[in-house]
Design brief:
The complex is a heterodimer. Chain A is an alpha/beta fold. Chain A is 35% helix and 20% strand. Chain A folds into two domains: 7-229 and 388-476, Aminopeptidase (3-Layer(aba) Sandwich); 231-270 and 325-379, Alpha-Beta Plaits. In chain A, strands 1, 2, 3, 6, 7, 8, 9, 16, 17 and 18 form a ten-stranded mixed β-sheet that branches. In chain A, strands 12-14-10-15 form a four-stranded antiparallel β-sheet, covered by helices on one side. Chain B contains 14 helices and 19 strands. In chain B, the strands form four sheets. In chain B, strands 1, 2, 3, 6, 7, 8, 9, 16, 17 and 18 form a ten-stranded mixed β-sheet that branches. A four-stranded antiparallel β-sheet of chain B has the order 12-14-10-15. Chain B has a three-stranded antiparallel β-sheet with strand order 4-5-19. Chain B is globular. The chains are: A alpha/beta, B alpha/beta.
Chain lengths: 477, 481
Amino acid sequence: MRSFRLGALAASLLAATLMTPAAHAADAPAPLRADQAKFRELYKEFVETDTSITTGSCTALADKIEGHLKAAGFADTQITRFAVPDHPKEGGLVVVLPGSSKTLKPILLLGHLDVVVAKREDWTRDPYQFIEENGYFYGRGVADMKAMDAIWVDMLMRFKSEGYRPKRTLKLALTCGEETSWAFNGVRWLAENRRDLIDAEFALNEGGGGRTDGSPEGKVIQQNLHVGEKVVANFKIEATNPGGHSSIPIRDNAIYELSDALVKLRDYEFPLMLNDTTRGYFAKLGATRNDAIGKAMLAIVANPADKQAEATLNTDRSFHSMLRTTCVATLLEGGHANNALPQRAAATVNCRIFPGVSFEAVQKTLTDVIADPRMTVTKIDDRGPLPKAPPLTPQILGPAEKLVAKYYPGVPLVPVMSTGATDGIYLEAVGIPSYGPPGLYGDPDGNGAHGLNERMRAKAVYTGRDFLTDLVKAYAG
Amino acid sequence: MTKRSGWRGLVAGLALAGLLTAAGGARAAEAPLRPDQTRFLALFRELIETNTTLSAGSCTLAAERMAAHLRAAGLPEGQITLFSTPEHPKDGGLVAVYPGTSKTLKPLLAIAHIDVVEAKREDWERDPFKLVEEDGYFYGRGTGDVKSMAAMLVDTLIRFRESGYKPARTVKIALTCGEETNGAFNGAEWLAANRRDLIDAEFALNEGGGGTTDGRAVAAGGKVVEQTIQVGEKTFANYRLETRNPGGHSSVPRPDNAIYQLAHALDRVEAHAFPVEFTDTTRAYFRAAGTARDDAVGKAMVALAANPSDKAAEAVVNTDPFLHSNLRTTCVATMLDGGHARNALPQRAGANINCRIFPGHSVEAIRGELAAIIGDPGVTVTALPPLRPSPPPPPLSPKVVDPARKLVARYFPGVPLVPVMANGYTDSTFLGAVGIPTYGVPGMWGDPDGNGVHGLNERIEVRSLFVGRDFLFDLIKAYAG
């Protein structure tokens, strides 16, 4: 998972103190049902199989999963393993549970098996030991995202053993490389090489989910449906110069040219944009809060040209980023010796592009803003074709709303567009809209995902498992 | 050695003005070597072929070899000091003292560094550590910078000893290591700090001056068009500008940003112009060089020397980067770094500012000035080691300049001797800092292309070496009395 940040939102909801009904207060933990105990074993195995890029293997975990699926009755023909020779440890698996309908298109369930690197010496507990303590599961991947991975696998095995035959075919793709932008990305590979295998009307992925109020009881105050995300692109802006000896400076200097460009970039603000998801988000959230920000949210939905409302929302970094393309300088390099005039100076500019805006348009904007013909602006990474933003349809929203009302009564379901990036963009690039469903939830501090002592509430996992099972059944018919 | 970019005499202007009709080189046809020249050449060859790079060589070995020649010539052991420190056993050097007769005149010191810039065999046409004579040039690392002078100093004392010469002043020579490796052990700095008495002198001679041809070897019909004596130099310092920020994920930019904050600071540094300053030397240089040129810049040079607040003249002079730098402290951004990942807001950004400091300003004073220019307490400004001293410039004294001028007139009739302040730097800074004014001598000459100093295929014209040797010998005798 990448930078899924809605802490500000949870905090603001909390501040508004609107959420009076206790949603699932922490009761004494009930004894596990038999199916839950079995699921827990599977989840434990997932977490204890190291799938980090440095010391682990997604392929090894996929081997184990294949074994479980076959034991549950899946035929060899329903399971596809994949890996490329250059990345033998970064393999994955696609499994298909056929549906009965000849007309309805499949649903694709998606999960990445890889985890962020974790060092034993930095953690309080062994990151690759599944430990339950004080109502939490600890271990690398418990939150990001082996809980959902295990829920998907367990769900398909149960459907199989129960003899449940959905109308829609259910497909599950478990992949590697989501946490590493430079290694092999399984979803991208499938989208580009096995488009038919993963074809679906839509996909369910990480990115959604709920947040608690941060209290020990873990009151759930919000659930999100993740609908679309901004697109990442990195650009290099560069100045070159013949250089020379630093004892005789000349007027033209690559570093100064770059500095001028950066100052212009800092002062530039991309224009405000809204789409169905963000309009829905601000409308829903604005109605729940009684402060200036809430009023500004409603005002901006009613009139995107309301500069005063925009200025108010811009004071919050998350809202500011959700409302536009952003480009920010993240890396700087220049020169080759302390005593030589620089021959080259460059900055990497990381852009988070609002859905629907092209890479070329952003590049042109950067070029126009810098307005210095001596400087070059180049796109330096390739994440494939531009994704299409998934539509926010009642078909998707309806079942999710119903289940949130059932499992988390009184908790709003908010559609969100993520300012970060998930593997969903690779599916959207080949025409498979991807959604992050609600159901699971975390704490506002982020639960140590990507960091130390990653943890997940046991109750969130078990409740989320039931929720997602119901949700998939509702979508699959 | 002061980079060629570090000083410039009148060449361009004079050559353009077509003033130099007289042939420079005193010796006409190539004469067979005199016995003393043959012996000197062997010494020079030995020094060139003793690798003294920081990476693979040893100054200590070169110093020992030079000491052996002095001993062989009969210089008593008590007049030879070999030095090195335990931390830098290969960066040693040599001081030799040739006593004078006067009880009142203070000694004369002549220094030369014996270390050389790195040279890779595979990059050079010839082996850089073999002295190769070809087409009127000696090739090899250090031929120009500055083992030629080091060998001449040793050779001078040998000839003094053998001829029984009794100078009025005591003559001292110091051969040191570390001039080319800023930040490693510097022998001149060490002597100034630890053996001040041993090297005490009224004034010192060093590299930094010299002649320039019209682009052709003198033996091939070219001319020496000018000779310079270096009187003072700028010192330098590197400063690190740094900004810090809590950073965060780049998908949610924050209003403050380490890179933008740094960029803003750099814009301020770029926009700042340090004020015009003159030393006696640069004032004399601007007058002489300005008069010799027949263009707008020449007129502006003369006007500015007469009135440093003549803004119109300053604007004209500033169009020439060398002159611009010779008139003031300059500070320029040379390196940039920042950030740690493409997708993370930078937690840190930094730049190196390389300043060439006009004589009389301390490194700390310029640090304070940079901080004031930037005017943002969030941007730290730190002077990086090595912190060099910033001594006052040596006086433009007739006692030093006149004998040099007389010898230039004799050896290079019609060629002007121009006092210059270098924009670059030499070890003279360290001697100046302990009260020994140090001058870069004229004599040897090079070509306008720099003769591969610090670069590939370093060379010196054969005639420049031998004429330069005679010139330096006579100059030292003139000063020593």
